[in-house]
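Chapter review. Work through the record for mRNA cap guanine-N(7) methyltransferase before attempting the end-of-chapter questions.
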Amino acid sequence: MDRPSYVRDRPNAEADNADLYHKPSSNSATVAKHYNEIRELGVEGRLYTKITGLRLFNNWVKSCLIRQYTKRGNKVLDLGCGKGGDLRKWSMSNISEYVGMDIADVSVGQAQRRYKEMNNNRFEARFYAQDCYGEPLEKTLRPVDYKADVVSTQFCLHYAFESEAKARQMMANVSTHMEPGAYFMCTIPNANWLEKKRRVLGDSFGNSVYRVEFAPGKATRFGTAYSFSLDEAVQDCTEYLVHMPSFVQLAGEYGLELKDCIGFHHYYTQQMQRDDATGLFWRMRVIDEERPEISKDEWEAIGIYLVVVFRKMQ
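Structure tokens for mRNA cap guanine-N(7) methyltransferase:
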């Protein structure tokens, strides 16, 4: 599949000011420490890294998802909100209420500050620091019976697959706090893609921007760990395969039905048939005159991820 390349006379605008990787949980204290310590690059800093194209592309995917599944006045629960990099995306969808939760307390503090610094806030927001997957949300969430129209977990849900017990706690947290008909949308690593690479290349593979290393052994439904690194974003962090048949089955047990499951490369092709998504792609300057294409290595790394969407049954 062809990588995006620059075409002249496209609309231009300032890139979306958002973080890419804001992940909760796993071996809770270790992961919280890891993401709390990732240095803040700032808006300009994020535009001049080896993975700038990847960052902007993935932010575009999240923006498309938010626009596609969010309506004016919706209430949002963001599990793994990190530094609040998606707050402006939610604001553009005219939501009424936002709850952000993340295991990394330093990141949650930064998200709170980012919200306070936003001009003309269109929604109420509150933030909580806790393990969104290993513990019931009711530990900190107020009101305890809060229900959202949209639940979002971006680039973080794979930590819940450390064990079946943790995955079930995650699904209980999600389902309990969804209105009937609400959407649960997430972006996760594609376990099939990773396993295919592993079969061909062995337990360790990657390129100039990412690296994956598996311990020897057969993949299982829960707890198959691998070490993941991504330039300027993640360094040797332990992640877990999300076995999609198990995920779909588990979601069904908690009253959710699968609506979409599509790789990022194919999601790009699909969305670029839509005028609004195409316009957003150029306004966010995923590619422009300074960066006329997404590099081959970035494009390969983009292929790691899936868009997955569930809907809570009535």
